[in-house]
């Protein structure tokens, strides 16, 4: 299965609907980017404490964030990687997604879907360091979500 979903948090119940939506979003992003749908992405749900630790360790920022991506295709190719293409891990704070859904005035599922698309696009090399990059990434996020009727 190309989308592996893991739950490392206990504050928000992980429903089958959330897991299914995340899988659909990842597949929509891969399809729109013409990536083999057999490529593997792992989505890991955590809480704010867990993602804060990762954010501090990997980015030097001592605060929780909503989503972090850990791409496996950066740098040199891994030896003996075979035919299987593993793109990396998306780590998403469900706690932060719930907070942001209230802040932004839209549904929790929409926020989880958006963060999933955002994280998946990071695994594919997209970034938002400049305004142009941010605009391109936002268009790609919204296009993937609109294809699933999760647009704004």
From TrEMBL:
<keyword id="KW-0479">Metal-binding</keyword>
<dbReference type="InterPro" id="IPR020549">
    <property type="entry name" value="YbeY_CS"/>
</dbReference>
<protein>
    <recommendedName>
        <fullName>Endoribonuclease YbeY</fullName>
        <ecNumber>3.1.-.-</ecNumber>
    </recommendedName>
</protein>
<feature type="binding site">
    <location>
        <position position="122"/>
    </location>
    <ligand>
        <name>Zn(2+)</name>
    </ligand>
</feature>
<keyword id="KW-0690">Ribosome biogenesis</keyword>
<comment type="similarity">
    <text>Belongs to the endoribonuclease YbeY family.</text>
</comment>
<keyword id="KW-0378">Hydrolase</keyword>
<keyword id="KW-0255">Endonuclease</keyword>
<feature type="binding site">
    <location>
        <position position="118"/>
    </location>
    <ligand>
        <name>Zn(2+)</name>
    </ligand>
</feature>
<keyword id="KW-0698">rRNA processing</keyword>
<dbReference type="InterPro" id="IPR002036">
    <property type="entry name" value="YbeY"/>
</dbReference>
<dbReference type="GO" id="GO:0004521">
    <property type="term" value="F:RNA endonuclease activity"/>
</dbReference>
<feature type="binding site">
    <location>
        <position position="128"/>
    </location>
    <ligand>
        <name>Zn(2+)</name>
    </ligand>
</feature>
<dbReference type="GO" id="GO:0004222">
    <property type="term" value="F:metalloendopeptidase activity"/>
</dbReference>
<dbReference type="GO" id="GO:0008270">
    <property type="term" value="F:zinc ion binding"/>
</dbReference>
<keyword id="KW-0540">Nuclease</keyword>
<dbReference type="Pfam" id="PF02130">
    <property type="entry name" value="YbeY"/>
</dbReference>
<keyword id="KW-0862">Zinc</keyword>
<dbReference type="InterPro" id="IPR023091">
    <property type="entry name" value="MetalPrtase_cat_dom_sf_prd"/>
</dbReference>
<comment type="function">
    <text>Single strand-specific metallo-endoribonuclease involved in late-stage 70S ribosome quality control and in maturation of the 3' terminus of the 16S rRNA.</text>
</comment>
<keyword id="KW-0963">Cytoplasm</keyword>
<dbReference type="GO" id="GO:0006364">
    <property type="term" value="P:rRNA processing"/>
</dbReference>
<dbReference type="GO" id="GO:0005737">
    <property type="term" value="C:cytoplasm"/>
</dbReference>
């Amino acid at each position: 299965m190309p989308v592996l979903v893991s739950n490392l948090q206990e504050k928000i119940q992980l429903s089958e609907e959330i897991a299914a939506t995340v899988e659909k979003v990842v597949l929509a992003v891969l399809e729109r980017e013409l990536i083999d749908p057999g490529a593997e992405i792992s989505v890991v749900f955590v809480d704010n404490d867990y993602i804060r630790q990762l954010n501090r360790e990997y980015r030097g920022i001592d605060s929780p964030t909503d989503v972090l991506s850990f791409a496996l295709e950066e740098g040199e190719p891994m030896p003996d990687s075979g035919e299987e293409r593993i793109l990396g891990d998306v780590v998403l704070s469900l706690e932060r997604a719930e907070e942001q859904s209230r802040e932004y005035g839209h549904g929790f599922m929409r926020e989880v879907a958006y963060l999933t698309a955002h994280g998946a696009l990071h695994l594919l090399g997209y970034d938002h360091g400049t305004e142009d990059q941010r605009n391109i990434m936002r268009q790609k996020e919204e296009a993937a979500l609109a294809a699933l009727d999760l647009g704004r």
